[in-house]
Amino acid sequence: MKNGHAIVSDAWYARFMFFPLSGYAMHTLWPVLFTLLLVHTTMSAQSYQSMHRASPVIDGHNDVLGRVLRGGDITVRSKKGHSDIPRLREGSVDAQIFAVWVPTRHKGAAAWRYTLEAIDSMKAMVDRMPDMLLLATGHDDIDRAIREDKLAVILSLEGGRSIEGKRERILELHRRGLRAFGLTWNNSHEWATSSKDEHEGRVSGGLSEKGKDFVRLMDSLGILVDVSHLGERAFHDVAAISTQPLFASHSSCAALRTHHRNLSDEQLRMIAGSDGVAMINFFPVFLVSNLTKQRIAAMRAFERRMQALKKEHPDRGENYLQAYDALVAEAMAAGLCTIENVVAHIDHAVRVAGPAHVGLGSDFDGINLTPVGLNDVTDLPMLTRALMHKGFTEQQIYGILGGNVLRIWRQRIDR
Ligand SMILES: [Zn+2]
């Protein structure tokens, strides 16, 4: 269960501890200080872990459904990939947007069949685990999941190719519980153009009239129109016609790493202007520009050392934290991509768009490399800790971890 305890950082406490006090001040201020110390003693028990648990945690993009379609079982804890249901719970995730991504080998009717099969297998899993999972389709469902200590499952399509330009298929997907729709993946199709294709100069069309009609339909149904993966032209078309907050489920900042998948500062400001959310992607390729084969190999070695560390310290106590910090510092000194690069992108997005317009879009199980120290979904509390160390306020962290996207969900989804 989640609760809303107040949390105060150690830096805040330190200001009181080292404040130079004369004898006179000591005398007059002591009752005040004593009260503050009492309050702090209660609050210091609030660790980053309680902060993490007290916030709604909502991740914008996870590709583990692909593993399910390949016959994998994600209802049990596994060492494969970055997530499964037990690990999502361990990472204290309250709502996960699960992407339905159709492998490119499936074309035409086969792509549509795959889409429905993916949705049905996720729903079957929810039916099998009613104590743990809940399909979120209504505006109160994420709040309900938090109240009942369950994981809210949000279904999303990544790429509109499989609807084959048919309007009625959007209605069908909505009926089946889909609530987010990434208009394209890397490949464009007849009604929307992708960032990859626009960047490579292959297409420049943005949204066709049909694409615009589809966006209006999704707006009216209460399906979040996901602009991650869209080309700039298509992004601007969505911004011009959509009456809803702009929602980017898994994109980082182009100002820190030039990449067509990342959002420019202008796009971040437009997202903020629409009261939307940009959810930061954890994929090192989108975070840093210095990845080499050697650095990637070194990062994988650090991942193994992190795994060994977790095994050694199942309590995640003070010794674990010290060793964890030392490993992250060592990786940073070696110029590798770490959890601190994710914090840097979040920090940049917060500076440009404001803290109410930033979220998390891990891309876990859709990426083949992770930042040192943020290696799977169970490391999410460490990101909360890193955000606290960076100096973000309790309220800002609450919003970034999930509060911001929860605001959109409550406004947008069927009442
Ligand atoms: Zn993607």
What does this structure look like?
The chain is of the alpha/beta class. It has helices at 10-17, 23-44, 48-54, 65-69, 85-90, 108-128, 141-147, 167-175, 195-199, 209-221, 232-241, 265-273, 284-287, 293-312, 318-333, 339-353, 380-390, 394-412; strands at 58-62, 95-100, 133-135, 151-158, 178-182, 224-226, 247-248, 277-280, 358-360. The model is unreliable at 1-27 and 33-45 (pLDDT under 50). Helix 3 (48-54) crosses helix 17 (380-390), helix 14 packs antiparallel against helix 15 (318-333) and helix 16 (339-353) crosses helix 17. It is 50% helix and 9% strand. It starts with 9 loop residues before the first helix and ends with a helix. The longest helix has 22 residues, at 23-44. The protein folds into two domains: 10-43, no CATH class; 56-291 and 337-412, TIM Barrel (Alpha-Beta Barrel). The strands form two sheets. Strands 1, 2, 3, 4, 5 and 6 form a six-stranded parallel sheet that branches. A three-stranded parallel sheet has the order 7-8-9. It binds zinc ion. Zinc ion (ZN) binds at residues 158, 229, 250, 366.
